[in-house]
Structure prediction request, 661 residues.
Amino acid sequence: MSVSRTERLLNLLIALLNTRYGLRRSELREKVYHDTSGNDVAFGRMFERDKNDLRAMGFEVETLTDLGWSEDDPATTRYRIGKESSRLPDVQLGPEEWTVLLLASQLWERAALGTAAQSALRKLQASGRLAEVGLPAGVQPRIKPAGQAFDDIVAAMHARHPVTFTYLAGSTGKEEERSVEPWGLGSRFGQWYLMGYDRGRNAARHFRLSRFTSAVTTLSREQYVPPANFSIRAELDRLPELPLRTAVVDVRQGRLLALRSRAVEGGHHQAPGRPADGDERVVVEYRDPEVLAEELASYGPDALAVEPAELVGAVRRRLQAAARFSASPVPVYSFPDARARTARKGTSEDQLKRMLQLVPFLVHNQGLHIQDVARHFGVTRDELEADLRILICSGLPEGYPDDLLDIQWEDDHVFITQDLDLKKPVRFTVAEACALLTGLETLNGLPDLPGGGALESVTLKLLAAAGEEGLRAASIAGPQVAPADAATHATVRQAIGTGAQLRLTYLSPQRDAVTERDVDPLRLYSLDNTWYFEAWCHLVDGLRNFRLDRVQDVRPNGRAATVHGPPEGGVPAKLFTANDDDTTVTVQLTRQGRGLADDYYAERTAELPDGGLVAQLRFGNTAWLPMFVAQHGGSARILAPAGLADAARDWLAASLDRYAG
Prediction:
């Protein structure tokens, strides 16, 4: 991270904010950049990059000219930033509105919109004190974005750049290169869809992200203009659900209880051939062949798709891609040392964004302990002090001491006495407005949402504050988060609230068994509309996570839950709980699958030249790792331990042998 660049951007911002007449490029070059190189071309490029960076942070740089003169004449062109146009309007929220907003900000589990949501929340908190609110007991709904493709499309869409990708066409079953102007991204029927203008077909089209077979490439040199008043929700409402169809699958006897539980009568008598010895033929319903293919591929040799041919081909394609990737040469990689791992990754823009939130926060929260300030911004004390040292050296160009930011923290309590009119947070960026407003829209339908009309009122307030950026939130639509089994959800939630222990009958697909156990429920959380609850399981004497749709029966057993203290890890809840006897596994992930490192809470990662990752993950049950490799169809492979890598390759080979027959 270039500290000099951070200082330069901050001083440029302060100079442009504190001039009414505007500053000429020559004045900025001398007083802010201190550039005496004489290279006008290099300075011009640097200045344009810095203006673009400030615009990306929410500051619109105005260009002023003398009457009758062109903007091309640097001697008569001046620059400034309008203070009011760059500021976030005051947003006054009550406790119930803060509660709803906190739920919405925590929806995005990870990735770009998760970061944007937290940044937007800090801007709101910077303009006043956060009300003391309590979230609903044990409830944490979350949205799980569809891998790296989701992040790449959102970034391109906000910057209005076209994208290209390889797509498995549903009509032909062939992979095709697509060039698309992305208009909107939304979730429907359990799938994420991109909607936009297909340049190759000269028409609007929709694309399921589950059918992407390559990473997304952004055409950053090109721009497009989306249609006015486009709403992804309105488009998705017109999208017909895929028809319900049946598939014939041969299953090893006594295996795959989860798949068997969905079996329906009829249909298998029309399937070709007979099941092999030790197999039983079952019929299951499905809508999207790619979704079912992912599940069947994960079962490996325990399941054989028989028909339709489209499904058989999809399963085989996933297994072949996984086998090819697993047999490819091992890349050269190295993990950073422990000190490098703990260092916070950041850029000059990241640091400047944080400092611009820091100044108004300190103005409205004078005298906080420096550790509390660092904790609020998610940085270490050393990182915070580095920010403060830059701030106190920044101010008006060639100004007097009173023209510098004045901050003291010698006694470990931070005070600010000169803010240079940075006391209000900058307006929302498009990503920040989208993250919060889409989150609020997604909360519709969540059972027992607190505050009654708080959801509607806080949405209206944020729309008014976000302005034009808020209107562009219509380009993203989250999934429905209401639980499918409301009765089970209500039983678990009531037990969390009353401290009751539950008797649970549970189907575990990984162990392929149904067990009964007593559990102390701690919290409910979701990934899209799939709900889980975290509980202390007395059968294994440890923390476990249970999917609500795999609960066959749940009821209070008449005993009080044991007190285990607050759940570890804060928000969001982790889907996987680490234990001392876990196995550390090294996996290689393609650029398309690199989001799995976040999904499985990688302890260490190493970047690869092709955009992929090598990650170290911890697994309590390594027996299902071949399922993990096959499920992701060429996006993940096991590198170490060698025994697990060999087992995964053998398992994939056995799976493909069944289809070769």
DSSP finds 22 helices and 26 strands in the chain.
